[in-house]
Amino acid sequence: MNRIAYASIAALFFASSVQLANAKEPAPMLKDGELKVPADYKSWPKFLTGVDRPDLKQVRDIYINPIGAGAKPGEQFPNGTITVMELYKAELEADGSVKKTKDGKLVKGALLKVFVMGKDAGWGALAPAGLKTGDWSYSGYMADAQTPTTDAPAACRGCHLPLGDTKDFIARYDEYFQKR
Ligand code: HEC
């Protein structure tokens, strides 16, 4: 065997060992309600903050993990993406209407709930029939980020499904990429 042949065998061996080193363990399959709120989510990139929902008398802050923040406009979010949404009560006036700053923004009150959605290869296979939103999985928690809410996962899916796969079932998809 000449030197070139040796070199290419060595290169092949190197390439395959790199591939092995990079091969990820398959992610555990998660049913709705099983995805936890990652403890460090407040250090993640912000997705959108101060999302006013006067209709619900709420303000929402949304975070996305660094894997998700790597997505490009027009693409779906990569496997391994997690997004966390904090739902805050809006502060109210004495008459029960929402309090507003002079810029017309709502004022964040107490934290009510923490919602999380994450995706990984194959998770969609566990979704109930007719409610598959790609490979996303959904969980809702109370303000302690640990006690499950009584929100039915089917309700999460029912609202996110019609958003469609071109927006990867993400409600504020366009706004995120416009403001990022
Ligand atoms: C009534 C419709 C509705 C339901 C039910 C719903 N969502 Fe959403 N979700 C939205 C909308 C709309 C937004 C964008 C923020 C906003 O406008 O409040 C959103 C945003 C999110 C986001 C931030 C990423 C994004 O899509 O912009 C997460 C995470 C999320 N929802 C998780 C959940 C989970 C988990 C549940 C169930 C426990 C759930 N949602 C139930 C409508 C819904």
SSE order and pairing:
Layout: H1 3-22, E1 46-53, E2 58-64, H2 66-69, E3 82-90, E4 108-119, E5 136-142, H3 153-160, H4 173-179
Antiparallel strand pairs: 1-2, 2-3, 3-4, 4-5
This protein binds heme C.
Report on the structure:
This protein has four helices and five strands. It is an alpha+beta fold and 180 residues long. The chain has a single domain (26-179), classed as Cytochrome P460 (Chalcone isomerase), CATH 3.50.70.20. Strands 1-2-3-4-5 form a five-stranded antiparallel β-sheet. A hairpin with a 4-residue loop joins strand 1 (46-53) and strand 2 (58-64). The site of heme C has 20 residues, from strand 1, strand 2, strand 3, strand 4 and strand 5.
In short:
The chain has helices spanning 3-22, 66-69, 153-160, 173-179, and strands spanning 46-53, 58-64, 82-90, 108-119, 136-142. With 180 residues, it is an alpha+beta fold.
How many discrete domains? Answer: 1
Number of helices: 4
> Helix and strand succession?
HEEHEEEHH
Rounded Rg: 21 Å
SS class: alpha+beta
The average pLDDT score comes to: 90
CATH homologous superfamily, by name? Cytochrome P460
* Broad shape: globular
Instruction: Work out the helicity level.
Output: 10-25%
Terminal CA distance: 55 Å
Could you tell me which ligands this complex binds, including any ions or cofactors?
heme C
Strand composition percent: 15-25%
In which order are the strands of the major sheet placed?
A: 1-2-3-4-5
Q: Do you know the CATH architecture?
A: 3-Layer(bba) Sandwich
- The total beta strand count reads 5
Question: What's the CATH class label?
Answer: Alpha Beta
